[in-house]
Amino acid sequence: MEKLLESKEIFKGILLHVKKDEVLLENGKKSTREYVLHPGAVAVVPILDDNKIVMVKQYRYPVKKYLLEIPAGKFDFKGENPLECAKRELKEETGYEAKKFKYLGMIHTTPGFSDEVIHIYLAKNLVKGKSNPDEDEIIEVEIKDIDDVLEKCINGEITDAKTIVGIFKTYFHLRSE
Question: Where is the Nudix hydrolase domain (predicted)?
């Protein structure tokens, strides 16, 4: 374990909080740790009865390209129930609601510089409705065959980590049903 010696707030924004800590390492040397605090998030793999996945395509400014992803979003407040967040984000981004959710686990997205955790859910028994994305979200809903999406994850067409993990977890979950 590393022992905290000093902590400084570098930046506090709407989404991210950046800190810089001085720590004492196990070997007795001092080091600096810069990291991002994140409120946490959810991601949902919405699967239709015919094994097609409801996905979203949106422009991601940091990487300057459109990405095909599973629906996802951050918690609105500290301590928000992940399942409730998943239900909200699925409806907002795709218009779909699910009668059945299965928790597939959580991931640390980038533990080298962030504490972000994403909880992943499988959503089944979908009912189509009207989407209501946030005003700063321009989202295109796409319905894709699970085998096609799996191939895109393998060949590098899909590069979003939460999507890759969610698709693989879903694939293996469905194989074990």
Answer: 36-166
Distance CA 120, CA 45 (A): 8
- Pair (69, 130) in one structural domain: yes
Name the 3-class secondary structure at 161: helix
Q: Which two tokens stand for residue 63?
A: 């990487």
Task: Record the pTM.
Answer: 0.92
Residues 171 and 145 in one domain: yes
Q: Are residues 26 and 106 in the same domain?
A: no
| 22 and 97 assigned to the same domain | no
Residue 141 Cα distances to 5, 20, 21, 33, 70, angstroms: 48, 39, 41, 39, 10
Containing domain of residue 27, as a range?
A: 3-37
What gap in Å lies between CA 79 and CA 11, rounded to an integer?
Answer: 22
Q: Annotated active-site positions, please?
A: 135
The CATH number covering residue 57 comes to 3.90.79.10
d(CA 165, CA 171): 10
Could you tell me if 94 and 123 lie in one domain? yes
- Encode pLDDT of 10-43 as tens digits: 999 988 899 999 999 999 999 999 999 999 999 9
Query: Which stretches of the chain drop beneath a pLDDT of 50?
Result: none
